[in-house]
Design brief:
Number of strands: 14
Largest sheet: 5 strands, parallel
Strand order of the largest sheet: 2-1-3-6-7
Strand content: 15-25%
Radius of gyration: 19 Å
Number of helices: 8
Oligomer: single chain
Length: 230
Amino acid sequence: MNELRQRVLVVEDEAEIRRFVRLALESAGYETHEAEGLQRGLIEAATRRPDLLVVDLGLPDGDGVELIRELRSWSAAPVIVLSARTGEDDKIAALDAGADDYLVKPFGAGELLARVRAQLRRQTLQTPDGEPVIRFGDICIDLARRRVQRGDEDLHLTPIEYKLLTCLASQPDRVITHQQLLKAVWGPGHAEDTHYVRVHMANLRKKVEAQPSMPAHLLTEAGIGYRFRG
């Protein structure tokens, strides 16, 4: 019996890195396809319909951010960025364009595969075929009733705290930038008010984390935003 394998498209112009990534993915059982540039990457993405893309930012015929932005106009497939660019501005630009994660070169095969598994798991968890309930630790979020409980006790969250929690928890393992959270929770007029997020996140952690100073679920991505881990 042939098992349907998940497809990954690698868009990377450096042959050695492309080969390294392909071998790592194939060793883990993924069907892997390759592209050397932006335009070829978009063509391969349209024809192969991959479950996930691994994209370098420094492509010979354009910037990977443009590829991600174009892809997001017609595909929700998760995107992991590979890049030698370490600046926060570069990371934020890629994530705001629609990337889901950002891995800085050099990197190990183990870390890459862990990121791939996390993104594909997130994609599976978001499939709307079950009850609208999110569980993590001893917390249960009932989306239909807008109710949050720890065990049998209700947690009393403010409307802002509830929006923050559900925005993050509904997208597990994805890096959400400050700007994305501000737009989703406060609206487009608050793009620069990052202190809003920090204050309310600190209050939210006190209510849902067992150790607010060492959060296990609402994780900080320094200088960029937050990530939810279930």
